[in-house]
Amino acid sequence: MKNISSNTYCRKKSGYATLEIIIALFILSSAITSSTVIAFGNQNLLVDTTADREALEQTKMLLETTEMQALKNFQSLKSFATTSGAFETSVEVTSRGYTTKELKTKVQWKNMYNQTKHITLFSLVTDFQNNSEGDTCEQALSGDWTKPEIKNSVKIFKDLVSDPSGIYSITDLDVYHDKLFVTTNNSGANKETFFVFDVTNIENPTLVSKVDNDPLNNTGLNAVTIASTTGGIFAYVASGSSYVKGQLQIINISTDPPTVVKTYKIPTSIVSGSSSQGVPARIAYSNGYVYLGLTKTVSGPEFNIIDVRNPNAPAWVGGFQIGSQVNDIVIKGHFAYITSPHTEELIILDITDPTHPTQVGGYNAPSPNTTGSGKSVYLSGDTVYLGRTTTTANPEFYIVDGSNPRTYMPTVLGTKEINSSVNQLLVRDTLTFLLTTTGQLQIWDTHTPSTIKQFATPLILPSASRGVALDCEKNVLFVGSVPTIGAFTDQGFLSIISTP
């Protein structure tokens, strides 16, 4: 019995040991399986975390890049969306008034479980420079610009001037916060030369006020630029009555009616001229300084810098002698871009020190003949758009690389034969608008400068008059045109153009 009992005990003990081994193997197997699940779970988590980090970095970088673009070229900001690998990125730009924009940058992707995730960042950017300089031309296009329409055309001189028997010509215009400011020439004393329109309703512009800038003289005004300062909002105008009396006038447009604050004459010790020489032709404003371009002088600079931080006491601070008339001026940062009939159609000056502007760059279009003067210029980002007078063997429209202003003969990105002088031009998004001597507003697709394409049938201005002035605000273009030389039937038009 003892032996039997002993064997029974051994068999029981062996059974328990086998059970323990089975349980141990099960636990071990479970542990291994759990470890495997945890390992793969951690790998998914790691992939998701890496994607999250990359998405966050992309969103931050996208926002910072867009903010830098705002500093470089505020007006060119526009919404867009792209796809890069597993990430969809987008920037949404919303205008908050004329000089502030909201940026919304978003990166979207799918995780390992095919769930859509996204990161969104917001920012507000303000155009401090143009906040004072009055450039309210919105670059983002809307509507169908393949079919531009003249919403209203005003025979400004016959309809609105107190003495319609005189001969008047629009010389320039500038639009600022739903107000359009127009300068004119005239044929006699006591004639209005400065007009203000309310263009809130573009189909029914309203004349708000009109001013005779100089009752004792009859040559009117040649150019205008609007700027907002701590002392008020001013129109800086190039006075055509100029050489004898003064080339620059400052008009306070914060008052009703506007009032001439100051007439300033550049000292004859600096600029000497005559009734036909040294007369103001173009004007620009930036950071408390007026940049005044004259016709060819007898002696002295045609490009002049005037300190107007105190509008009651303007002061000449510096100039540059071109040896030819200044046809157009654009100021960007520390550089002035000037077009003229000079050998170089485009002259670039460093104006960091306004007392000593110096030429650092320029462009001379290839010309087997003497035609084709520099007429108009526009900057968009790092690209320079140059318009010329009519040529016989070369294009009138050039697009050149402006990434380095300190360059002579920069790379030409594209050209186009217009068969007319490009009197004024501006760029909005991928389109360039050209105002021509032949009475047309031409629209060209310049998204790819090497293949400039016609975007719309040219819009014919009223009476096919010669285009002289062009500006925009929001999604609207404002055009000034005058009759061809010797034809004064309609005496000029103000045309307001937009989409259907």
**How many structural domains can be distinguished in the coordinates?**
2
Low-confidence stretches: 1-17, 21-41
**Strands side by side in the biggest sheet:** 1-2-3-4
User: Residue-averaged pLDDT, rounded?
Assistant: 81
Which percent bin holds the helix content? 10-25%
Question: What's the CATH architecture name of the largest domain?
Answer: 7 Propeller
Number of helices: 4
Name some characteristics of this structure.
4-stranded antiparallel β-sheet, 500 residues, Methylamine Dehydrogenase, Chain H, alpha+beta
Please describe what this structure looks like:
This protein is α+β, with helices and mostly antiparallel strands and 500 residues long. The protein folds into two domains: 2-126, no CATH class; 131-498, YVTN repeat-like/Quinoprotein amine dehydrogenase (Methylamine Dehydrogenase, Chain H, 7 Propeller). It is built from four helices and 32 strands. It has helices at 2-73, 128-133, 156-160, 242-245, and strands at 80-84, 87-95, 100-110, 116-126, 149-154, 169-176, 179-185, 194-198, 206-211, 221-229, 232-239, 248-252, 259-264, 280-286, 289-294, 303-307, 315-320, 328-332, 335-339, 346-350, 358-363, 374-380, 383-388, 397-401, 412-416, 422-428, 431-436, 440-445, 453-460, 466-473, 476-482, 493-498. The strands form eight sheets. The chain has a four-stranded antiparallel beta sheet with strand order 1-2-3-4, with helices on one face. The longest helix has 72 residues, at 2-73.
